[in-house]
Amino acid sequence: MGSWMKMIKELTIRPKGKRQIRKSPAYSFDEDLKKPLSGQTVKEILSKSSDVVFREFFLQGKDRIPCMLVAVDGLVDKNLLDEFILKPLMVDFAGHPELAQMTLSNVIDKTMESLLPGIEIKKISKMGDAIDTILSGDSVIFFGNLTEAIVIGARGWAHRGVAEPITESIVKGPREGFSETLRINTSLLRRKIKHPSLRIISLKLGDMTNTDLVVTYIEKIASPDIVSEVFKRLSKIKMDAMLGNGYIEEMIEDNPYSPFPQISFTERPDVLAGKLLEGKVGIIVDGTPIVLVVPAILTQFLNVNEDYYQRAMVAILSRFVRYVGAFVAIVAPSVYIAVTTFHQEIIPTDLFMSISAGRQGVPFPALLEAFTMTVVLEILQEAGLRLPKPIGQTIGIVGALIIGDAAVTAGLVSPLMVIIIGLTAVASYAIPTFDLSLAVRLIRFPLMILAGVLGFFGVTVGLYVILIHLLGLRSFGVPYTSPIAPLRIRALLQDTFVRAPWWALKRRPQLMDVEDPRPNGKG
Amino acid sequence: MGTTFLPVASIVTGVGGRDGWMSVLPGFAVGIPYCLMILSLSEQYPRKNLLQISAAVFGKWIGNFIGLIYILIVAYLGGLLLGQVGDIYQASIMPLTPLWVFFLGGIFLVLFLIKSGIEVFARFSEVVFPLIVFALLLNVGLSIPRIEQGELLPILSEGFKPLFLGAIKVIPFVMTYMLFLAGVIAFLPTGKQELSQLKKGVWRIIFLVGILDALVVLIQLLVFGPAETIRLVYGLLVLGKLVEVSRTVAGVESLFLGVWLSAAIIKIGSLFFSVIWGLESVFGLKGVKWRHAIAVVFLGISFRFIRGPALITEIGLVDEYLTMPFVALWIPILWGVSRWKRGAGN
């Protein structure tokens, strides 16, 4: 009994002040990694995996040097290895004067200097580096029993091409989006910002997955404090697996218990470039087309990249619609409940009579009616989200038209309630960011309960609690509600509720402290 | 500006009649020299609140005695204002809801705001202030069709005496702000540039609030006439009830009360902070349990005065006979003695 209790305690109690990460039973190559580098040991470690290829051959120099090329099938470009690595070494350079001088002691230097034509070639001397590079897709050549080896960058695997992102589609603007391959993503970014101050710093995370990621920022613009904070938080992550950006997001955000997203994401190189030029920092994880951008502020979740491709007046109108939509999506059901339950005086008599007639025969109170309909809406959204597109549309039609109409005809809900819920759904689609939309969906429910119990007083208390919570949030040290509070008038007028014309955007938005506030170094 | 704009019309018209609206701005302007004195003390004693400065200038015993009076006044006033939240909601839009619901809702918001810290408190005020101004202007603007110009005339028929009497009634409101400023100065920047900005801010905000409150009194006077304005303690809410926009939205008082609640929370929160700082400075008491104790005290006071007229009378008495004399004497004497000591030291 005691041991059971102890086990339950160990599983449930979280040590104070520490973020606990449950790891799988330790399985490491620590002992092997301590051994000196040699082709034979590498073969012992990796030979149980059928996808690892060991190609053994000889270089005929002054001595006959045994060589072994190790690579992972499917992660390397075989043509490149055959044509530019193996063929030159084994066939083309046979009888070459350099090769004739070659002995086991100078083989690595001579090969790198004179024989191998590739760009990405380097020397390694640690077992850990060898294993990592092989499993990451590079090829390694071992020579005899030497404790050094040559790494050849010949990565090449099947990957999705550059396609238009589904979650950030636009009418007027570039169509390219990030893919799952890290290097393609960095190249897309580099094509946008051809400046030496663009920094792309590589890291690895995940003890087992060894996932590659890069932190990118513009050195002359991004605040050094924010950059160092990003590295600090990333360095604290200790996990077995890092299979996507979501893992990092939860580990580095400021307040993990808040429903509001504190890290933004994008699938578009142009958006990432724009954010970096504002002084933000991007985190690109290999294996996912979604790039994390920090710090994030609330208002940016309501702005979309198309705002910058449309004319200013059109962008202002679009933003206004989105802000109104977000507000309606949050408060519409709760206001309906408060008005019909407590504050009928706010509605003129004629309108009230009309609403009252619509509710005739509805057996439920407004709170239960709205709550049920909102839950149904959530179910429909959840059901439609992950189904194949044609079926998803059918679910929408069945849910919205057939169930809604049947519920009104059966007298279970009032027609106005259906309109309110429909309006709420449409308004929440006006929120361009999925993460913020989820937060809005979440906070709608407590507001509805408060409205049903305490009327406008409850709604007001709920909204102020949300406001105070938002005002206290920070993303990497930057106040989440900036530039509204703390008030930064220029940022507010330039690129928050409105988007000033490009010719008026003389300085960076100054949502945070940036190194160089001028957009083009002149201002 | 806190909760001033609801009762101000009734109060100044009560003593100043139809000319009472003109006394609001001069009444608020009295706050300017007090603010400047506090900022000057802050310059001399950076990162200290007025209670700590008092202890430094007058000695520990007198300083602690002043601190004790300060704590009693701000705690009592805070509790009364919390009571006003329940009183106004129940009297105007939710007569069937028990008072304790509003008290608990109010104190919950205040505690949440206090827990979030002074920075969030400042940001909350920053966000809410434009909303209050907008709501006031909307309420005033929508009432314009009901104006009867004759209510304002004759102007100054009884000379300048009503203005003086009205201003005397407004001064306690300003003195309440000084109580908060006395505590918050420890958190304000003390650089020369920042202090100069703060001084400019004081002028701006006092004139802005004074003009808005004068406008609120004026519109009530023009719509209701002097007699009704005096009788209606929360006349602005009655104005909201009269509003009708294109036969779609009829009474905006419930919406207006939502905005007023934020103002009330700021004012109660500022008094709550003042109690915290007072307890810290005088008795060295700090921590979450003392915050909860203060909340219990606030709730206790708010439950004690549950009826509208009694509550309003009590707030008026505290303002006139405790807050005003205390602040009116404390700050100038402290400023004068500190300057004298500095002069003598040189």
Automatic annotation (TrEMBL), chain A:
The chain crosses the membrane at residues 320-342, 362-380, 401-431, 443-467. One of its GO terms (cellular component) is membrane. Keywords: Membrane, Transmembrane, Transmembrane helix. It holds the Pfam family GerA. InterPro entries: Spore_Ger, UPF0353/GerABKA_families. GO terms for biological process: spore germination. Belongs to the GerABKA family. PANTHER family: LEUCINE ZIPPER PROTEIN 4 (PTHR22550:SF5), SPORE GERMINATION PROTEIN (PTHR22550). This is Spore germination protein KA. It comes from Desulfosporosinus lacus DSM 15449.
Automatic annotation (TrEMBL), chain B:
Keywords: Germination, Membrane, Transmembrane, Transmembrane helix, Transport. Its main location: membrane. It is found in: Membrane. It is a multi-pass membrane protein. It comes from the Bacteria. The keyword Nucleotidyltransferase does not apply. GO terms for cellular component: membrane. The chain crosses the membrane at residues 20-41, 61-82, 88-114, 126-144, 164-189, 201-224, 255-278, 290-306, 321-338. One of its GO terms (biological process) is spore germination. Belongs to the amino acid-polyamine-organocation (APC) superfamily. Spore germination protein (SGP) (TC 2.A.3.9) family. This is Spore germination protein (Amino acid permease). It comes from Desulfosporosinus lacus DSM 15449.
